[in-house]
Amino acid sequence: MAANSWFSVLTSTGGSLTSHRLFSTSLRPSSFFIPKADSQNQNHKRKVLNKSSSSPPEKVAGKQKFSRRSKNEGPFANADGRSSSSETGRSQSTAIKSFGLQKKGKGIMLDSKDQQVETGSIQDAAFLNAVVKVYCTHTAPDYSLPWQKQRQFTSTGSAFMIGDGKLLTNAHCVEHDTQVKVKKRGDDTKYVAKVLARGVACDIALLSVESKEFWEGAEPLSFGRLPRLQDAVTVVGYPLGGDTISVTKGVVSRIEVTSYAHGSSELLGIQIDAAINPGNSGGPAFNDDGDCIGVAFQVYRSDDAENIGYVIPTTVVSHFLEDYERNGKYCGFPCLGVLLQKLENPALRACLKVPSNEGVLVRKVEPTSDISNVVKEGDVIVSFDGVHVGCEGTVPFRSSERIAFRYLISQKFTGDSVELGIIRAGEFMKVQAVLKPRVHLVPYHIEGGQPSYLIVAGLVFTPLSEPLIEEEEDSIGLKLLTKARYSLAKFEGEQIVVLSQDIPIPGTWWRNRAHYPKGDDRGGKMVLANEVNIGYEDMSNEQVLKLNGTRIKNIHHLAHLVDYNILVVLEREEAMSASASILKDYGIPAERSSDLLGQYVDSTIEQSEATNHGEFGYEGLLWA
């Protein structure tokens, strides 16, 4: 059997290991882990993946398993940057700080062969004082019970100063934060920090500290150029194994488009062999000149490999900061909006009338992308802003290297226009398109933190999301899972609305029904049981397609239909009068999330009412 491989986020926290399995397109069993803080308070909700017998008497670091799904990135996903390959190695002018994240707890630790060192030549280096320790208190949403949150837990990580009262760290270090504090090297005072921007896709977060005392004597770090292979690299942070600053050394092993575990995206990444442990997340990596060349954020674990860590390069960091400066917020990396296939086969190129050994085939176009107006399935993309695309889906990179085509896309910003050279039925033409962020039918992360929900007569509705799939992985049907993985959003704002599963029975201690033996129903029911919904108790994790014959576009649309339609199957007056007692019996504060209280505005594009082949779910919650 092929050995399992893992990407681990560099966070250490109290609690058990957690697994967030989404989906893998690889033939080899592979998983992408981000170090997300999980405490003992969450042990009842998360699975223990592994316990290391050699780990210290601290708790095992929590990890979340993430993997790519082909519908989002396709064979060629987005990468960061705006300029051509000749500009890739230019030095950066923006100042940055060190990073790192350590979860207070157990963890599967890296090999101790890469020893952490603090030599005399480095110990007094000024750049070490720019690296700070991050203390974060997290309160994550409960996606199975969307009206409440999970128990609070804490974690620690690393960050670094970039000047102007700001610091950089990893997004996963401050995910679902309720309080963030930072502490400087050699100081015993913790200062309150505020999260200004959070880039999930690139796993970067921007923090600010208002205290003037914190910034006294501070010297912000500065960006260095993109390193070369075998360049020396020094990683600094506050990892597991101690409270003081840690320094590890290694070299640059590889530079290529890399899977980012936290954002389930693919951007430029630097692979190094310096030891990176839970707690290093958000900390800086330096070259021999003391310039920051990136931010440590994840590691690769496999039975077949050792000492593989990853650093977010300064090109990606600069993109994040410039995006924030342009818009006053982080807008994200854009995408081209197509699923592509390599054209290595000569017979395939001949069939498509491609005269030379170049180009990639457009297999599918996302309906929500601007490119859907100018590119069709079956077209061959042979150039991007004048840069020729090879038949393996690569483009020139620096002087003598090649890199994935998606790297050029990620160099752009949201709203940028690009020129594509395409071959259609043997004819070459050029088309223009505007780049936008990808519209996810099933999002990896919930904007605003708390999922939306609607309760009608004891039936709980919520949009399908990847965190919900993770929590309900043992009960999500194969058809619904397949739709979540491979279907594309037909219009902006489209959601898959499902009936939520695993509602607690009052008076029982309950978290996730999957933890009970098969056939054991003591954990909960599928609906909030009441006389008004007799016969519907076993409805679970099914998509709701229509209400009174009207196709449901999203959770806001469903709430609107519920408010202004008449019930057929459930008596409206009886259902509404029963709602108050149901909420009281189950200790639920409101029948719907706060974002559903406003007036519904239909901004979506009207779609055909015809049902697609293979569509499934409850065709009619019928109001009477």
TrEMBL record:
<dbReference type="InterPro" id="IPR036034">
    <property type="entry name" value="PDZ_sf"/>
</dbReference>
<dbReference type="GO" id="GO:0006508">
    <property type="term" value="P:proteolysis"/>
</dbReference>
<protein>
    <recommendedName>
        <fullName>Protease Do-like PDZ domain-containing protein</fullName>
    </recommendedName>
</protein>
<dbReference type="Pfam" id="PF17815">
    <property type="entry name" value="PDZ_3"/>
</dbReference>
<keyword id="KW-0720">Serine protease</keyword>
<feature type="domain" description="Protease Do-like PDZ">
    <location>
        <begin position="526"/>
        <end position="595"/>
    </location>
</feature>
<feature type="compositionally biased region" description="Low complexity">
    <location>
        <begin position="81"/>
        <end position="94"/>
    </location>
</feature>
<dbReference type="InterPro" id="IPR041517">
    <property type="entry name" value="DEGP_PDZ"/>
</dbReference>
<comment type="similarity">
    <text>Belongs to the peptidase S1C family.</text>
</comment>
<feature type="region of interest" description="Disordered">
    <location>
        <begin position="34"/>
        <end position="97"/>
    </location>
</feature>
<dbReference type="InterPro" id="IPR043504">
    <property type="entry name" value="Peptidase_S1_PA_chymotrypsin"/>
</dbReference>
<dbReference type="InterPro" id="IPR046449">
    <property type="entry name" value="DEGP_PDZ_sf"/>
</dbReference>
<feature type="domain" description="Protease Do-like PDZ">
    <location>
        <begin position="442"/>
        <end position="501"/>
    </location>
</feature>
<dbReference type="Pfam" id="PF13365">
    <property type="entry name" value="Trypsin_2"/>
</dbReference>
<keyword id="KW-0378">Hydrolase</keyword>
<dbReference type="InterPro" id="IPR009003">
    <property type="entry name" value="Peptidase_S1_PA"/>
</dbReference>
<dbReference type="GO" id="GO:0004252">
    <property type="term" value="F:serine-type endopeptidase activity"/>
</dbReference>
<keyword id="KW-0645">Protease</keyword>
<dbReference type="InterPro" id="IPR001940">
    <property type="entry name" value="Peptidase_S1C"/>
</dbReference>
